[in-house]
Write a structure and sequence with these properties.
This protein has helices spanning 15-29, 86-91, 165-176, 194-203, 224-227, 238-260, 298-306, 314-329, 331-346, 363-368, 379-386, 388-391, 407-417, 478-491, 522-525, 536-542; strands at 146-153, 205-209, 266-270, 275-279, 290-294, 311-312, 401-404, 434-437, 445-448, 450-460, 463-476, 495-502, 555-559, 562-566. By secondary structure, the chain is of the alpha+beta class. The chain has a domain at 146-182 and 448-566.
Length: 567
């Protein structure tokens, strides 16, 4: 009856039968020595088969030949870096971070010396580089925005807990009046110091626009998942979108006017695609107002050129300069290679086409008589081929654009009228960009960073030690980072460490853009900056030329009132 069924194959075997047949074939193919009975007391061995590499295994857990040294176990906790206390390293196992950003680069497990993040954090592990900086009394300016700070110290942070209503109000008043707070080198009783607690509240304040309490408005790049599902009545209401953008334009213009008058040191514009940093004249070693945009695309740069905005791509130009210098150094080698290429061409070989060939003439097609059979590339294709190197940096840190001087005002009008500044679809549709500023501006809302202290015990060798930590969450701008470290310097008696979580798209703002003018008179340029609302020491730090390159500070440590950092 089974043979009458159409499509029935009498030779078909079910999976268990196939497995039994396979094992039988393996036993038949074994040599006679392999069939010898095992010694008494030994467990029976499975039939040997040629070792197959698991295609899903990594290099670390792949089968290794005998005698090959085994890699370090993943579960083994790496030792703390040189100069760091074992208690600090053990304390990381006890904390659960609030992760905001995914780092743009990772190191191989075999190269890691210490991971300053909990082992259960799969989103933002912070690898500490091996080479720290030399101890200094001040750390360089970090123009990136931090999403989270985690301070650690053997001294408690109880002075930062449960501020009284009067202390909180005094801190707000000191911020609005730009009051300078100068603490002694060491505060004997931090918990009883009203001046310290008020200054702490003052350092947590920042200004934001727009203010929508049910939405997290920073970061904006990659924030669709966090905003999705939240109420957004403007997404389908064009009239409401126009009202929001009109209000945003007023706030943006107010910030620029404050910046031009040196009453605001800097501010950020955070869109869903890119971030803009406006800096006043005198900051970051520049004698004029500057604006840096990152990341950019070819379409955005073309639109800026169309509006008459003069800008440069300093990181791309720097790369070209380095390549030119390398070519000059290796000139003799290139000459020798060119001679070899010439000889090979004489033998009948054709030279490779050059990417920089600007010859647009196709007269040679007419000479061959095939001008009608071959499709000529249009002008757009030729232009794209010429701009290939510029297009390759789109969405990368190297695409950073620098606008200087009066062109920043043209950039202001461009951004106000730019249609691509606001998303037209998705969770952020119709939502204006986020404005972040250290000082008050028209339409801005006062906000504070979230702070909480944690006390825990960490096992060090055979004993437990008390470790205290202070966590700061929110958009931490450069002035807040400097103010907080200055306070901790006095409150923690010159001994603390910190892990800094960076919003990665803003790390490139630390690149040296060659803004410094040879005839720059620092006293003249910075004459009016003291009225911008920042502490003189913070202002002095931010006026220095950036030195961190395209990276940012990831780990900061103070010992004996001297800083070391790792980026």
């Amino acid at each position: 009856a089974a043979s009458a069924v159409p499509g029935y194959s009498p030779g078909f075997k079910k999976p268990p039968a196939m497995l039994r047949l396979k094992r039988k074939r393996l036993r038949r193919s074994e040599p006679p020595a392999a069939a010898a009975p095992p010694p008494c007391g030994a467990a029976p061995r499975a039939p040997s088969a040629p070792a197959r590499r698991n295609p899903f295994s990594s290099l670390d857990n792949a089968p290794r030949a005998a005698g090959t040294p085994q890699p370090r176990e993943r579960g083994r906790r790496p030792p703390p870096p040189a100069g760091e206390s074992p208690a600090a390293a053990a304390f990381w196992q006890l904390l659960e971070p609030v992760c905001e950003d995914k780092p743009s680069r990772r190191t191989e497990p075999s190269e890691r010396t210490n991971i300053l993040a909990p082992t259960d954090d799969l989103h933002l592990p912070v690898a500490v580089p091996e080479v720290p900086s030399s101890p200094r009394h001040e750390f360089p300016a970090d123009w990136s925005i931090k999403t989270r700070l985690l301070f650690m110290s053997s001294q408690p942070f109880t002075w930062a807990e449960h501020l009284k209503a009067q202390e909180e109000a005094q801190g707000f008043a000191q911020h609005c009046r730009a009051t300078e707070t100068n603490l002694p080198q060491s505060v004997q009783e931090p918990k009883l110091s009203t001046e310290l607690r008020c200054a702490f509240q003052q350092s947590l304040v920042y200004w934001l626009h727009p203010s929508l309490p049910w939405l997290q408005l920073f970061p904006r790049i990659g924030a669709d998942r966090k905003i999705a599902g939240k109420a957004s009545p403007w997404s389908q209401d064009e009239a409401l979108q126009q009202v929001l953008m009109s209000d945003w334009s007023v706030s943006f213009t107010s910030l620029y006017n404050l910046l031009k008058a040196k009453l605001c040191p800097y501010f950020y514009i955070c869109t869903y695609q890119f971030t803009v940093l406006f800096r006043a004249a005198g900051l970051a070693g520049s004698d004029v107002i500057t604006a840096v945009i990152s990341p950019t695309t070819r379409g955005l740069r073309e639109a800026m050129r169309h509006e008459g905005i003069e800008f440069s791509l300093p990181l791309v130009e720097d790369s070209r300069t380095r390549k030119q210098k390398n070519s000059e150094v290796n000139l003799e080698t290139e000459v020798a290679n060119s001679l070899e290429v010439g000889n090979s061409m004489e033998d009948g070989e054709e030279p490779a086409p050059s990417d920089d060939d600007d010859d647009e003439s196709f007269s040679w097609l007419e000479e061959m008589g095939v001008q009608d059979k071959v499709k000529k590339p249009d002008a757009i294709s030729i232009k794209l081929r010429k701009e290939k190197h510029e297009v390759q940096v789109d969405h990368k840190p190297e695409s950073l654009a620098l606008v200087k001087g009066t062109n920043t005002f043209t950039l202001l009008n461009f951004l106000i009228n730019c249609k691509s500044l606001v998303a037209v679809a998705g969770p952020q549709a119709g939502l204006p960009p986020t404005l972040l500023s250290p000082v008050a501006f028209r339409g801005g809302t006062m906000q504070t960073l979230k702070a909480r202290s944690i006390n825990a015990k960490a096992r060090v060798r055979l004993a437990y030690e008390d470790i205290s930590s202070l966590e700061i969450v929110g958009p931490v701008m450069p002035h807040s980072l400097h103010s907080l470290t200055t306070l901790l310097k006095s409150a923690q008696r010159g001994a603390f460490s910190a892990v800094l979580y960076t919003h990665e798209p803003t790390a490139v703002f630390n690149a040296d853009l060659d803004n410094a003018s040879p005839a720059l008179n620092k006293e003249t340029v910075c004459k009016d900056l003291p009225t911008c609302g920042l502490h003189p020491k913070t202002l002095d730090q931010l006026s220095q030329c950036p030195t961190l390159g395209k990276s940012s500070i990831r780990f900061l440590e103070m010992k004996d009132y001297a800083y070391t950092w790792k980026s």
